Amino acid sequence: MELAWTSCFLIPKWAIPKQYADIGDNEVDLHKHLGISDKQSLDSVINHCQNICDRMAKQNCPETEDSVPRKTRKTLSSVLSKIYKYLQQNITNTHLTTRLYNTPLVLVDDGKMLVRANQLAHKLGPLPSDALQPYMYTPPRPLGQYDSLFQQLGTEENATFQQYACVLASIQDRCKDNSMHPNEKKKVLSATKALFYYLSDDTYENNSESVDRLYLPSTTNKLKLSTKLYYGSDNLIYRIDQSKYDFILPLTKCGCDERKGKMRVDLLPEIHRPKDVGKVVFEKIGPNAKPCIAESCEYRCYLKELLSSEELNLALQRIIRYEQGAEFLDTARKDKIARLKTKLQIHCMRKLETMIYSPSKGEYIDGSEKDQQLFMSKTEDGFDLYLHHGDFPIDGRLLGQLVFEIDFIISCQLNDHSIIQTLLSKGVEHFQDILSEDYNIPEYDQIKGVKEDENSPGKPVPEDIVHLLNDDPINSFRAGEVVALQKSVQEGDGGESESGEYVFAEVIEVLDLHADSDDTFGLKRKYKVNSGGNEPVEVSCNDLFKFKRPEEQKPNDLEVYTGTGENNESEARAREDISLGDAKSKIKKTLEAAFKLTEDERRKVIRRLYKQWHPDKNLDNEDTATAVFKFLQQEITRQESGVAGPDVESYSRFYGEWNSEARRHRQQHETYQSNYHRHQNIHHRSSSSHSYVPPSFCTTMPNPREARVWFRQAEQDLQSANNDLNIDNPSYNWACFKVHKAVEKALKAAKYSIDGKPKHDSTSLLSLAYAIQTHSSCPPGLDEDAAMLDKLGCDFSNTRYPHHHLIPSESYKKQQAEDAIKVASRMLKHIKDFIGIQKF
Q1: What is the pLDDT averaged over residues 403-412?
Q2: Are the beta carbons of 537 and 531 closer than 8 angstroms?
Q3: Residue in 562, 579, 507, 561 with CA at minimum distance from that of residue 537
Q4: What is the rounded CA–CA span in Å between residue 195 and residue 159?
């Protein structure tokens, strides 16, 4: 037997008697009778181990130079290795675990420290391996062969709640009720972070209730028994006198913000959980808060309209479905989103101050006053949202707070707040486009469901299917048929235009069917239609349009074509069968009939013929269409010259507008066909069995009526700028300001005519010009003219406020204003042509 440190008595070899002796007739085991062991017992090894380890552990030196000679440390390491080997051979003996569980028998830190096996873990959660030394270690690599022994004695693969709690208890035992010094605090923060990391991870077994006592850091820099502490929001903790309440240090101060809110104090089991200060006191509107003095505050009304809007409701549904990968949202989730409309009250405050209130004492806590920009409280019936009266646009930081409260109201269904914050910084009309274009969030059924009734009477015809209106003036319509009705934009604004808006309408009745026997083509026929108003209206047949079917996808080498395309094939055959001579003959007769109509009706028929045969609308038969189109223009001129009278006008002045419209339709056709072929499985519901309405893929809606109103005001502003130059005391800075406003409104009018979504909050002429410059029909050079106006000083602010130590009336000159008016006049002319307004 090799000599090692031991607590056993060793007999010299010469003194050891022989093992067996004959006494009388019996052979006797002398060693057994004398109590001499040939092998060491498990108990003797355990005793030996405890003697060595308990004595040497007293000389642990984690923070000082080692006072134990190196040779002694080396001998200790050798002896313990032999002990580990022996103990591991007896690992199945439960007596071993019971006696050695709390014995510091593992050598760590280069042999300078002896620690218990239950102070070891291979992984310390989010912490580096040395973060909790000298209270906790990872097993040294040289001792890896004894892993099974150490695991039997409490070593863990992943550190446990109990181990972290032991670290905190050890530090508390050292510092008692004194403040922690910096190194102790660093270890405490790390252990607290790891402890809550453990609690928030569902993959770990929660053994937190096996701990008798848990100590946690307080805001007073001391370790306190967790059940003696209070917890709450940062907003409450730092506004309450901490001499009256011991608060747990906010977990964010321990580095617990990495897991996005999943690490919370309430994860602790109730037996260790601090007391919720929110159940003792709470924040509420203070007595010094003052409501907005405006009877109908614009700020409050704007936010009320925004948060209760159907657009926000649909956007939230769309985002939540996308984030959660849900096929649909159940009624409960939708009801929670609807709280924004049904359960939210908004209050605008000129002074918004909150205080902490103690219900038990019935009083506010002194010194807890705080000025707020936003505050929300929950009531029995819903939610009260208080906002400090502000300006537009809403500050980004305030929007972030607002989104947080929105998510709270809808029961925290959002994963990413930034999307809603982006939406709220824009107009509601942009919500769906932003979700599609900026975030690639698909449109789900609840969005498409809104479109199901888009062809009901009075609804605008989506811009992307306008090119599918049948321009042939020779048409008949039946009762119940869904059609497009062109409404001229002059209604209600005192002007007229060839380009009106199209709305869906339903034919109710055919009027005076046999009233005029000379009306061969039915160009005088009238119809009573439902156009969405309170009463049916009487309209001319020349205001009504049927819808053509889109072209079906043609077969090619890569695709198998299964559609019949009967309507399109019949239309194509019809175009092929019409010879050039037949087409000219029909046009001639139609024009002869048209010139017997009133001027308004005649112009409608000519416009339809012009568009029907325009080459840009006949891409599949362009050669024939070009020849017919040329004949049409010649025939119009001939018919004009043959009819005298004050009501006859030259139609050539409308050609520019009609050409622009045809070019737009050509571009719409190319884009639409691509969308249509990708969505051939979409079925669009029609209001009638014998009506066809093509599907729309448009998420924007041009607004020609609003475009006209804005453009008319732009012209008035420009005229006012001219007037400022023709008075006895001209005001050049005000002329330049009015030029800026005129061009701004004209550019927004152009955006209205494109998609109905101008940037109302923008006053930058260059930005507004860029917004429409990408449109294919936009006249070139608008951005250059906008830059020229900026160079000439046509600015929203500089024309009105002092700049560079000069007041505007001193810095603006006559030539500057005259040049600005010339540039603005050119821009308004181009924009007028672009949006198709010819006569005012």
Answers
A1: 93
A2: yes
A3: 507
A4: 9
Among residues 318, 297, 230, the alpha carbon closest in space to that of 266 is found at 230
Distance CA 407, CA 417 (A): 8
Compare 616 and 36 and report the one with higher pLDDT: 616
According to DSSP, the β-strands at 383-388 and 344-351 are parallel
Q: Residue 770 class from Cβ within 10 Å (0-12 exposed, 13-18 middle, 19+ buried)?
A: middle
DSSP state letter for 463: G
- Percentage with pLDDT > 90 across the chain: 34
Per the CB < 8 A criterion, the answer to whether 739 and 721 are in contact is yes
Confidence of residue 615 (pLDDT cuts 50, 70, 90): very high
Give me the residues paired with residue 20 across strands: 29
Note whether 709 and 528 are within 8 A (CB). Answer: no
**Structure-token pair, residue 467:** 């090119």
What is the pLDDT, as a whole number, of residue 458?
Answer: 84
Q: 168: pLDDT confidence band, cut at 50, 70 and 90? A: very high
Strands (E), 92-225: 106-108, 113-115, 121-123, 156-158, 215-217, 223-225
Q: Which residue has the tokens 């809808």?
A: 410
pLDDT, tens only, 776-788: 677 888 989 999 9
Q: Counting runs of H as helices and runs of E as strands, what totals does the chain give?
A: 26, 23
The closest alpha carbon to 582, from 616, 624, 617, 546, belongs to 624
What integer pLDDT is reported at residue 560 of this predicted model?
A: 38
Q: Under a CB-based contact definition with an 8 Å cutoff, are residues 333 and 324 in contact? A: no
- How big is the chain, counted in residues? 840
Q: Three-class SS string for 480-533?
A: CCEEEEEECCCCCCCCECCCCEEEEEEEEEEECCCCCCCCCCCCCCEEEEECCC
Distance CA 132, CA 120 (A): 11
Q: Can you give the pLDDT at residue 688?
A: 42
